[in-house]
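As a next step, we paired sequence with structure tokens, yielding the entry below.
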Amino acid sequence: MIIGWDIGGAHVKAAWVDAGRVRDVALWACPLWQGIAQLDRALEAAQARWPEATYASHAVTMTGEMVDLFEHREEGVASLVARLANAFGDRTHFFGGDGWLDANLAARHWRRVASANWAASAALIAARLDAALLVDIGSTTTDIIAVAGGRAHARTSDDPARLASGELVYQGVVRTPLCALASRIVFGDREFNVMNEFFATTADVYRLTGELDPAFDLHPPADGGSKDVAASCRRIARMIGFDARDANDRQWIGFAARWRAAQLAQIRGNVARVLAASGLPAQAPLVAAGCGDFLVRALAESIGRRSVDFDQLAGIDRQYATWARACAPSVAVALLFDKETR
């Protein structure tokens, strides 16, 4: 039995693999910036769900070292490595991009461990497709990684350089403030400056379009209020100085579609940048992953490429398919470690 972990700054994602098959996938909210105890609570919830985890091997990747709880990423990796090793002992193995490290080596070679979850997903895809573009749109970030010839063709591995190349886009479908998507936006027959305030997030948009699965909508809205249609309308109205009562729900849902288009355009621009640098053939599909997988399918259609769901490549049973896409790196590290140890 292997548990694959993706320790993020906002969520902990985990996949249970037994005899080479995914048996369960889950995620828990983990606002790590609020303290390391948030991780402890998520691990306790996972152990309650899977009592067998005590006897499992554990394959770990992470992005949580980036949160401002830690002075720098080296401290973040060391803290998370220590927490996981303390919880699961010497059966804990850390993904280093091109191999596995024990706790001591992971802390020492922290740059290999830091934010390497995209590399795990890409490695799994590379073993199954000759050429593809991984597009993993999560709650907070988007990874865009070219895969060809049995390996990932990322131009770099660290976050600053990935932000420069377009392979990392700090946008997702839950936690991104709407003011990050556009400086001006159309409502009705007029264009407005956008208020640069934390009034609404992308979760409000995708609640209104009906595309965000409530299972992945785990964080409080910007105002700490309700997640219903009325409250989401109220929050997006404020982005351009209106109250929700100044228009009807249908009009605010149409406004949400404008924000969706703005986000899709930004991600499409970065996809074009990565494709141009990669030289992937026209027939190479987009691999849809993340809780924003619905945007990947829309993106593929808009640029004339087909899309393939991550779970289909990983051979996931239908009952776990949605969760496997949303938690792709945790599934990937579990399956990669299973292959490594067979």
Summary: The chain is about 40% helix and 20% strand. The longest helix spans residues 249-278. The chain has a mean pLDDT of 96.
